[in-house]
Protein 1
Amino acid sequence: MKEFGLEEFLAYIGIEKKYSAHTLKSYSGDLRDFISYCTQKMGLDSLGSMTHFHIRSWIAELVNQKLEHTSINRKISCLKSYFKFLKSSSKISHNPMRKIVSPKNKKTLPKFVKSEELISLIENSDKSEDAEYMNIVGSFAVSILYQTGMRSAELLNIKISDINYSRSTIKVVGKGSKQRIIPLSNELCQEIRRYIIIRSKLELIQSDHLILTAKGRKPYPKLLYNMVQQELRFSTHSEKKSPHVLRHSFATHMADNGAEIKAIQDLLGHSSLSATQVYTHNSIQKLKDAYNKAHPKAIR
């Protein structure tokens, strides 16, 4: 892979662009698959002979594999960054991605959990010190994810020092190492304090991270996913039961209750307003439903 500049590109987006470890892993896998396809199936032996036909052939192969358009577009985005880097570092004389058009994604509204279901789950969870520690962590994770809208990866990286009780805020480091400040309700501040007291009683604490396993370590993402899924399993009728659906629920409920879209964007840490605007569609649908049920001309 050395002759294709893969390691240099990964180092560039990791160090200079500060892409997350998750994105680095995804890009590395996508590019290795792409290069393997070009070298093994199409006999390509150098970057100089790469054309848009090779790329289109690979995309056609992905379509034949029945991949979702969102997955294909992510891989195309990866290739765009890769070839832009190769062109800027003079490893290729032309950029074959200039002739590539991404397929349109199907427009789907974000899945979310009803507010009354989440509030009931949070208020009725066992917060006593006698409860099993990992069950406490699971219910606490659901609460803080829903009340802040942060990503699961962001929660796993939160440290106790990131919490400012005097200002009722929490510092979050998002994608691209961008920092943002999220306000905390008085109730959530108290909940965090209670959890930290229980956390402090672990036999061995090996990290300053807020969320710890029973062994005092930072959890793996899959463990957090499983804990949240377990908490939501019997508490909601929503199809999706993941940490990310709590982020969708946070944004949807904020929009439903009249929050400005720019404020929601800032809280979520979206770099583009278009990524946040999808949450307004659920609110618009509620307005349409209210109109159709109540307006004399609509109910005829």
Protein 2
Amino acid sequence: MFKENLVNQNLSSAFNVPKISDKEFYKLKEYIEKHTGIKITESKRFLIQARLLKRLKALNLCNFSDYCSYVFQSNDLKEIVNLIDSITTNKTEFFREANHFYYLKNKILPEIFSKKQCINIWSAACSTGEEPYTIAMVVSDFIEKFNLNKSFSVLGSDISTKVLRTAITAIYPYEKINEVPKEYYKYFLKSKNPENKVIRVAPEIRKVVQFKRINLLEDFSFLNSMDIIFCRNVFIYFEKKTQEMIAKKFYSLLEKEGILFIGHSETFQGIETEFKRVAPSVYQKVIL
């Protein structure tokens, strides 16, 4: 991150590109934190500047003062979405933090399917869709392997409409398959054109995954209750107060004994929550 900021800073000096002032930076920082919960530190100034330069160019604006006026005075909802899309980080891959999927397959699914006919799973902040599709592959393979008469649905959500468009198409660079264990290759289609280096998630997986734009700071109690929620490598971007608020909302949405997966680098230590830790970065809703 430091290297990227240094490069952006040097580019701003070398080429006479618009620079973001303190006033403009803090105005955007305050808006982003209020509406997304994402922490924006001073070290992110040049990263924000570099990413929003594309929006200035797209809108034919000369400087960040004009951009702030456009966003906050016109109340252009489309541009507000573009702003959020520009600043969100969307790093993901198939079978990321694979231990979670091993735990899902060998511990959670046997227990939950022994009690339920149909389960609902939510991949929150799913970015370009690799996580919800991975979940669907693991559950489908489990059902097929044990010849179960069971069903499930997966919801993938993100605050960024840009990444959701990619998720819906389910088309990825061919090298993405290197992340996938070979027993799951059956759930991908290759292009018939050998020069087209892409893969697509198979129809039987796509049909059980739905996508929706959801801001975790806003109300999502309208969703169906969930048996399992994945919200991984997201809490690290929030202040403790926001982490606690989102954890409480997840707790309310989960069924009794429902499971929440968070990122391997994340913890609920230091926040008030009713979740019980049952494995590294895995929490369960326990009602006494």
Protein 3
Amino acid sequence: MNRPEYIQERDGALWLTEVESDHLKLNWRLKDVLHVERSPFQEIVIVDTETFGRALVLDGVVQTTAGDEFIYNEMISHIPLALHPNPKRVLVIGGGDGGVVRECLKYPSVERVDLVEIDERVTRACKMYLPELAGKLDDPRVRTRFEDGVQYVKGVRNQYDVIIVDSSDPIGPAAVLFEEPFYRLVKEALRPGGIMVCQSESPFFYLPVLQNTRRLLNELFPVTRTYWAPVPTYPGALWTFTLGCLFDPFEDSGWICRIREKSTRYVTAELAVGSFVLPAFVRGALGVAE
């Protein structure tokens, strides 16, 4: 197996160097490199890290790890699903590792989850090496389509109660998932009373992306809110998510009870409420009072 250039042996140990910017690099000590392949879209690597267990790496960037994936996957899933009073049909764009789908299936009202992932080889690798994430993709309520998410939503209207955009960073094939035409298509794919959510990056390293995402959703949806969670393996640790809602779900406090009923490792009802309390510097950057 040929190791990528960003994985090198130093002083008898194997290290993965993730380049975040010209000024920041993250080093991961590895136990092993389990899988390397190049798909038509990206380089896919599965490694076993010393601290966080197995990890999915795309084009040299760590996407998720067995050690802390539950934080991100629970937060991007449970908040919109609990806010919706009766989610039946859910669309997940991206998220080929399966972690978001796993969380969606915890809601008995959900009759169907459509997963649209551009790269089939990501899902195949995760099924083999990260079954704790991908293990629910064979559930009969799940339909997986390997195609471009933008092209998919162009062909659907008024079909989904909740749409979760679990994209990678806004570079390469994921860049279009942060642009206005895509968000407009997502809105049109929602049923009346629908909710969408997207990961809106780190306010430390991608503040312009967060600001632009909130601005675009403000223009399209009557109700928008940003919330956050600490994700240890993501640069800056503080990660944001932004909702676009076709109604005001916060008028009904019942959503808090719906979270309390679920089996989770990170999210609690109290934490979910608190996640909407943004740090002062984020509120200032977004120009909001929440």
